[in-house]
Specification:
By secondary structure, the chain is mainly beta. It has 3 helices and 31 strands. The strands form 7 sheets. Strands 5, 6, 26, 27, 28, 29, 30 and 31 form an 8-stranded mixed sheet that branches. A 6-stranded antiparallel sheet has the order 4-1-23-22-21-20, with no helix packed on it. Strand 28 and strand 29 form a beta hairpin. The longest helix has 7 residues.
Length: about 350
């Protein structure tokens, strides 16, 4: 396996489209795949406790993705036709719809489920890939669900693709023409780095999801159908990417005049399916299963896992947890050392795991 380091510089506020410094160095052997990377880590088995929730309106459904912040858990419910999210308040176990869809003021224009928490300023960022909405967490805890502010990014020439996160005044994610980008909100400048193998037309075959470090100018990304994760350092005028890869994308992209679609194959596997972070650690829910396309149920089951892998922010293995049931998404409360997961059943709910055991 190789770790690749990219650097992209800004000169006089102009984004340079060439990589000024690029190094690729072979380092110690990290095994044949991501699971091999943890071969020297003794697994820890965890037993969870189901949390009885008080649900207002429609019950929880898929719980596709989630994050924890200040006694609240934001859950993506993209199969809901009216709202993209649910908010779980752990103080009273209540659940309420959040992120109304529509074309009205402060409504989400799509079912995009991209979010991040600005922990130092106690703010939640949501985006529908057009607008970015900023919520005050104190307001959300008081059940006041209107955003405090919003902004848009001019994406007529440069477009973000999929997941983005907020990192100290930047919006960070992947773009259709470059693999990694940091957009400075106040100056409206882009820092870009990394090309797609095969060119921009292969961008959709290399989609990543991101999570920002709670306080540092860093983010982590994982790829759901490519065996790769990486850690970004967002510096003043540079992006540094430490990439951990066990193979390249085998996906294709089908393109017509009106649509683009990712095309899988019989060898396609689910890799990293969910991520949570704390000041010290990165938690990946990892599948590694070949996608079974024989039915909708079998395909969804391929994306489930009961294995959570923990790394530090240098990408070094720390822990491996084996849960007593499979899940689709995870979140972590670092203060109370609790791992939350979504139970995958007819009536899904929240399951809590105590992480105070041996390290």
């Amino acid at each position: 396996m190789k770790i690749l380091v990219f650097r992209m510089l800004l000169v006089a506020g102009i984004s340079l489209n060439t990589v000024l410094i690029f190094t690729s160095c072979e380092v110690e052997n990290y095994g044949e795949n991501f699971k091999d990377y943890f071969s020297n880590i003794e697994p820890i088995e965890l037993t969870g406790n189901r949390i009885d929730l008080r649900e207002d309106g429609k019950p929880l459904s898929y719980m596709f993705n989630m994050t924890f912040f200040d006694s609240l858990i934001l859950v993506n419910e993209f199969l809901d036709r009216e709202y993209t999210y649910k908010l779980i308040d752990l103080r009273d176990q209540s659940v309420r719809p959040f992120g109304e869809r529509g074309e009205g003021p402060n409504q989400l224009l799509s079912d995009a489920f991209y979010f991040s928490v600005d922990h130092p300023n106690n703010r939640l960022f949501l985006t529908d890939n057009v607008h970015y909405y900023i919520f005050d967490v104190v307001d959300l805890k008081a059940r006041m669900d209107e955003p405090k502010d919003k902004f848009t990014i001019d994406q007529r020439e440069k477009r973000f693709m999929g997941s983005t996160v907020h990192v100290n005044g930047h919006i960070v994610g992947s773009m259709f023409h470059k693999r990694f980008c940091a957009y400075k909100i106040d100056s409206q400048k882009f820092v870009e780095v990394g090309d797609y193998k095969g060119g921009p037309s292969m961008a959709m075959a290399n989609q990543s999801f991101y999570m920002n470090h709670p306080t540092k100018d860093m983010a982590v990304y994982g790829m759901s159908k490519v065996p790769e994760f990486g850690i970004l350092n967002i510096e003043k005028d540079t992006i540094e990417v430490n990439k951990f890869s066990w193979g390249e994308s085998t996906l294709g992209v089908s393109q017509t005049k009106e649509t683009m679609a990712v095309v899988g194959n019989e060898e396609t596997r689910y890799e990293f399916t969910s991520v949570a972070v704390t000041e010290e650690f990165i938690y990946f829910l990892y599948s590694g299963k070949q996608i079974d396309r024989s039915s909708r149920k079998s395909m969804m089951s391929s994306g489930l896992s009961n294995e959570v892998y923990v790394l530090d922010w240098e990408g070094k293995p720390v822990n491996k947890y084996i849960l007593d049931q499979s899940t689709r998404s995870i979140a972590v409360d670092s203060k109370n050392k609790t791992l939350y997961t979504a139970s995958f059943e007819e009536d899904p709910t929240l399951v809590a795991y105590n992480l105070t055991g041996p390290k």
